[in-house]
Write a structure and sequence with these properties.
alpha+beta; binds FE2/S2 (inorganic) cluster; 4-stranded mixed β-sheet
């Protein structure tokens, strides 16, 4: 596709369209899952992508509300490109798991960092400063 129109090119550039990592279509129509559940999944997806710095940047994950993906059961239904992978029960918990696959393990690394930071904090609270110091370089806090 050529972007002959400057306004179209600007709009595409604003969302880094040429360099997106994934595009998630999430059904929020309300037939495959209760509307409140679908809405909760949508809000969770939007929030997590923002938290992970994956909005309007190179390597972004685009998300779009779909108004029915024609499965209409066991939802919320999600479809992720470029793979074309379909997800059923795309709850916040299951979306969080799926993020690992979409993001080349960025989320998994974030979880590990948080876990080790918590261990580090526990060690410090336990007054075992020597152990904490020994672990510090490995935990990235040293
Ligand atoms: S209502 Fe969700 S797939 Fe049809």
């Amino acid at each position: 596709m050529t972007l002959d129109s400057p306004t179209l090119a600007a709009a595409a550039g604003a969302i880094h369209l040429g360099r997106v990592r994934r595009h998630v279509l999430l059904c929020t129509f309300g037939k495959c899952a209760p509307a409140a559940e679908a809405e909760a999944s949508w809000k969770y997806l939007k929030r997590r992508l923002k938290e992970l710095g994956l909005v309007d940047v190179d390597g972004a994950v685009l998300r779009t509300r779909a108004n029915c993906l024609r499965i209409c059961r066991d939802g919320p239904i999600a479809l992720v490109y470029p793979e074309g992978t379909w997800y059923h029960h795309a709850t916040p918990e299951n979306l969080e798991q799926a993020l690992d696959n979409w993001l080349d393990h960025k989320v998994a690394c974030e979880r590990l960092r948080a876990r080790y930071a918590a261990i580090h904090a526990q060690l410090r609270c336990g007054n075992d400063e020597r152990v904490a110091q020994a672990l510090a370089p490995w935990l990235g806090n040293g």
